[in-house]
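Quick illustration, no need to memorize.
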Amino acid sequence: MHSVYIVEVIVQMNTETKALINKGEMLPLMEEFYTIQGEGAHTGKAAYFIRIGGCDVGCHWCDVKESWDANLHPPTHTDTIITNAKKYANTVVITGGEPLMWSLDYITKQLQKDGIKTHIELLAPMRFLVFGTGFVCRQKRQNYPCSALTKKPTN
């Protein structure tokens, strides 16, 4: 399902945009803003939030259902997103939707190169994430049904 959804989203775009999205050099940006982290171990700390559109999970408890349809959010050059983030904070939170639907290699490497702490909020407990050092990943919820914890990745 994961791969099929991405194909449906990017099939409507031109070839150049598709290639940039596949490399993570463009992302469907829903919103970006500077705020104070309100959840988890980093509560109370300033951060720049990058909300990526698109979700292939669709949890009933989601507080940002507007993020689910990636087609509603314009593909934005990742370098522009990074430039905006660097103006405001030394910590970035990448959230969604489900950010792991997209290649985050480019954005995370660039942020790390620039010395920006990177936190990634994700839902999928069944997806494995290896970004090296310097990244904090926090699942959005911990009350998953047992079947979700044992489900194998589809990509």
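DSSP finds five helices and six strands in the chain.
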